[in-house]
Design brief:
This protein has 336 residues and is α/β, with parallel strands linked by helices. It is 28% helix and 26% strand. Strands 3, 4, 5, 6, 7, 14 and 15 form a seven-stranded mixed β-sheet that branches. Strands 10-9-8-11-12-13 form a six-stranded parallel β-sheet, sandwiched between helices. The chain has a two-stranded antiparallel sheet with strand order 1-2.
C-alpha cells in the first residue's frame, strides 16, 4: 500500500513509500481510506513542534480520515465489511469529560495518522458516515468541526439570542460560523480579506470586520453589540488576537482558546479578566460521543462543509504548503 511518511521529522522529509498492508488484530477493523483533511496541527507535527508529545520520526501524518471497512479482526461485532467510517481524533476519549490518558493516542502526532491507503483502527475508534455525506465531507469533521461543536454546543451552550465572534476562514472558524447559526446565534466574524468577508456573509455572519483595516476591532465589537460585548469568542488566532478578544467578550462571557495561528504565547491582563468575570476555556476536538452528535446535526441541518481544494495523496506536501500560506477558505482535503 502507499503511505506518506515523515522521516526524519521535518516537512522537507515527507515522501510516499510502499509498505505491506496492515492486518487487523482482535477487536480491530481494516479501513481502506478514501479521503483525509488537513488541520494546522498537521504543520506543527510535521515540524516536530509537539516535542516529546509526538513521534519524532517515521510518522504517518494527518488525523482526519474517511473510508470503508474492508476486513474485520477477530471478535469485531460493531461493523460489517463495506461500512463507511471516519476516524476519531482521540480514540481513547469515548464519552464524558476528558480524563488523564484520553489524549495519549491522538492520530498524526503521538500515533501514526491516516495519510495511507489502508489503516487499522480499534472498532470503537471510528464513527459511521451517513449516506448523505461524501468521504471528503466526512473527513472534514473529526478535528475542526468537532472542535467548534465542543466549544459552542457542548461547553458554550450557545442558543438563540446569543452572540458569537469567530476569527478567520480556516476550518474551525467556518464550522463555528455554521454551527452558531444553526443554533440560532448571531455571528460576528473577522478576516483580513474583503473577499473572505464576503464568504463569511454568505455563510450567515451578520457582521464582518477586516481586522487589518481595524486593528482595534475589540472596541468595534463592543460598539456593535450596544456596549455589551459578545457572549462567546472562538479564539483561533492565539498570541496576536487574544488581547482584542478579551476586549470583545461581555462580562461573564466565554473565550474558547483553540488555535495558535498568531503565536503560542499571549499576555493576559489578569485584572481585566477578573473584572470581566471571563471564562477562559481551552478546547480540544472532543470525545467519540461528541463526534457522533456532531455528525447527526450535520445531517439533520444539511450543513455543507466548506472545502477549499482537494489534492491527491501524491501532492500532500503541496497541500500542506497551501495550508501554511493561509490563502485557503475552509478545509483542504486529500484524495487517497
Amino acid at each position: 500500500m502507499r503511505t506518506a511518511i515523515i522521516d526524519p521529522i521535518g516537512l522537507d522529509n515527507l515522501h510516499l513509500v510502499e509498505r505491506p498492508a496492515p492486518q487487523p488484530g482482535p477487536g480491530e477493523i481494516l479501513v481502506r481510506l478514501r479521503a483525509a483533511s488537513l488541520n494546522y496541527r498537521d504543520l506543527i507535527a510535521a515540524g516536530g513542534g509537539y516535542g516529546s508529545m509526538q513521534k519524532q520520526g517515521d510518522l504517518i501524518p494527518l488525523s482526519d480520515g474517511a473510508g470503508e471497512v474492508v476486513e474485520l479482526g477477530p471478535g469485531v461485532s460493531r461493523w460489517r465489511i463495506g461500512d463507511r467510517v471516519i476516524s476519531c481524533f482521540c480514540p481513547d476519549w469515548q464519552a464524558g469529560p476528558p480524563l488523564p490518558g484520553c489524549f495519549d493516542h491522538d492520530l498524526g502526532a503521538r500515533c501514526d495518522g491516516v495519510a495511507a491507503e489502508l489503516r487499522t483502527f480499534r472498532e470503537d475508534a471510528v464513527v459511521e458516515i451517513p449516506e448523505s455525506l461524501s468521504f471528503h465531507d466526512a473527513a472534514t469533521l473529526p478535528c475542526a468541526a468537532a472542535t467548534a461543536w465542543h466549544a459552542l454546543i457542548e461547553l458554550g451552550e450557545i442558543g438563540p439570542g446569543q452572540t458569537v465572534l469567530t476569527q478567520g476562514t480556516g476550518g474551525v472558524a467556518l464550522f463555528a460560523v455554521q454551527i452558531a447559526r444553526l443554533a440560532g446565534a448571531e455571528v460576528f466574524a473577522l478576516s483580513s480579506s474583503d473577499l473572505k468577508l464576503d464568504r463569511l456573509r454568505a455563510l450567515g455572519a451578520a457582521h464582518v470586520i477586516n481586522y487589518r483595516a481595524d486593528p482595534d476591532w475589540g472596541k468595534t465589537i463592543v460598539k456593535l453589540t450596544g456596549g455589551r460585548g459578545v457572549d462567546h469568542v472562538v479564539e483561533t488566532g492565539g498570541g496576536d488576537t487574544f488581547r482584542q478578544s478579551l476586549r470583545a467578550v461581555r462580562i461573564g462571557g466565554m473565550i474558547s482558546v483553540i488555535g495558535v495561528l498568531g503565536g503560542a504565547r499571549a499576555e493576559l491582563n489578569i485584572p481585566v479578566a477578573i473584572m470581566q468575570n471571563v471564562r477562559l476555556q481551552g478546547i480540544s476536538p472532543g470525545s467519540r460521543a461528541m463526534l457522533r452528535e456532531l455528525v447527526a446535526a450535520v445531517v439533520q441541518h444539511r450543513l455543507a462543509p466548506v472545502i477549499d481544494r482537494v489534492f491527491p495523496l501524491a501532492e500532500l506536501r503541496a497541500a500542506l504548503e497551501h495550508l501554511r500560506a493561509r490563502r485557503h477558505i475552509g478545509k483542504i482535503c486529500i484524495d487517497i
